[in-house]
Amino acid sequence: MGRSPEALLRRLSVRQRMTAIIALLLLPLAVLSAVSMMVLNEQEMAFRDSVEESVHGLLPLTTLEHYLQQALVDELLAESHDSVPDFAGLTQNVDNSFSSIQLGANAKDVPKQVIDDAQKAWVQARPSIRRLVEQVHARHVSGATASANTRIELERAIQDVSSARASLAGVLRARYEHAAAQRSRQLHWLMWSWLITLAVAAVLIVIFLRSLLRPLQALTQAARHIEEGQAGVRVDVDGRDELAVLAECFNRMTASWETTQGHLQTEAIKDPLTGVLNRRGILSQLDAELDLHRLRQQPLSVLAMDLDRFKFINDHYGHSTGDRALTWVATTMRGLLREHDHLGRHGGDEFIAVLPNTSHAAALEIAARIGQLVREGAAREAAYPEITIGVATAPDDGDLAASLLEAADARLYTQKKHRHAGSPASATSPPTQ
């Protein structure tokens, strides 16, 4: 079964992954940037060459064609008599115009000085115009035959030049269109190359970031669960990178913390000498069982037990013997109680037993068995104490811990008074109501 890219990346360290991702991103981008610059420079040079080729190829032909057409026009004008003005008619018309103006010189709309200045300018220009027109007439008469041949040659040359220009323009246009298509293909190739490269880079970045963020998120979530008090929190370790090492350390730290917490909790609620619950632990269990009693409406009984002759054992046999006596009594009682019953050391030689779902009569029977077994042990061993037991049951004696313990203590001390007074009452006798 193949491993995911993220799992494969987790086999590398974070530094190796960062180096690899930078190399995989920068190398293609650098190569693609260099290729793009080369292609764009090549296209710019090709465009410049195309423009220069068009200018140097077409401009001379176009200029030559223009000059030839201008020469043909000049030649046509030269051989056409219509292009030479009727000097006599024109000058006579101009003279008549000035004469008519002079006859009406009293008119107020045209100043006389303006008219005089215009007539003087005309008189000065008239001889020069006459000489130019006479020269044109002389050239027309002498070169009529030569002008015809020149016109034909000019027309043939214009046609040849125009054909050459059209052919060259077609070649240049085809080459330009081919170059433009090639440039378009190159630009499309560059565009797709950049898109593919950026897409691959985005995928690599996402995979790289997931390989970093998912372990961090798992560690964060595990830390929050521990903060909420959950037990058995562990982080899956997958990979060989620094985050995997951190997850392993986190798991070991969590296991050590849970072990330490368990020890602390045990020490907080258990009596280190006898191994049964201490005062805090037994009272806590009593409160919890009372909550269930109120919820299920089942009877709950409490045994308040006090050891007799314990001070005498401590004073005559020593405290170590007293400790062994306490341990023996606790072990004896624990062996007679049921699995779901709770036993705790309430004080120096005082014990409390919490009996869930137990009626008052059943609690009296259990108390009688405990008392009988302890008395038998005390009869065999002088360093073992006897025991007195008081019984209280909820809800008859109340449904609070204080009321139950008070009732059990009261019956316990009643038993002691009867014993000290020489009464035959025993721990198995029913408590006084």
From TrEMBL:
Keyword Transmembrane helix: yes
InterPro entries named among the record's database cross-references: Diguanylate_Cyclase, GGDEF_dom, HAMP_dom, Nucleotide_cyclase, Rev_trsase/Diguanyl_cyclase
Domain annotation GGDEF: ranges: 298-430
Annotated Pfam families: GGDEF, HAMP
Record Gene3D superfamilies: 3.30.70.270, 6.10.340.10
Record flagged with keyword Transmembrane: yes
Enzyme Commission identifier(s): 2.7.7.65
Segments traversing the membrane: 20-40, 189-209
Cofactor(s) in the UniProt record: Mg(2+)
Protein name: diguanylate cyclase
Source organism of the structure: Rhodanobacter spathiphylli B39
